[in-house]
Design goal:
Blueprint lengths: L1 E8 L5 H11 L3 E8 L10 E9 L5 H16 L1 E4 L2
Antiparallel strand pairs: 1-3, 1-4, 2-3
Amino acid sequence: MTLDTVAVCATMPDVAAVLDALLAAGPQLGLQLVPRSGEVPSAPDPSWWVTCRADGTLPGADAAAVRLCAELVRAAGGLTWPR
């Protein structure tokens, strides 16, 4: 089972922001960066969605995904989903 958490960023996170977020989150997750527009009414438009998929069988993986998204939103603005 996996857990997906999304950072809907107001601007595209730069390489330094992504690396800082990955370091803060830990090794338990994967990362996918995809431009999206108009899918979440409260999100900036355009926005960058960063999907963090955590392995639900690994202890702490879900918390790592949440930390990564929170760090990206802190750096690039926006919101996390689910909230």
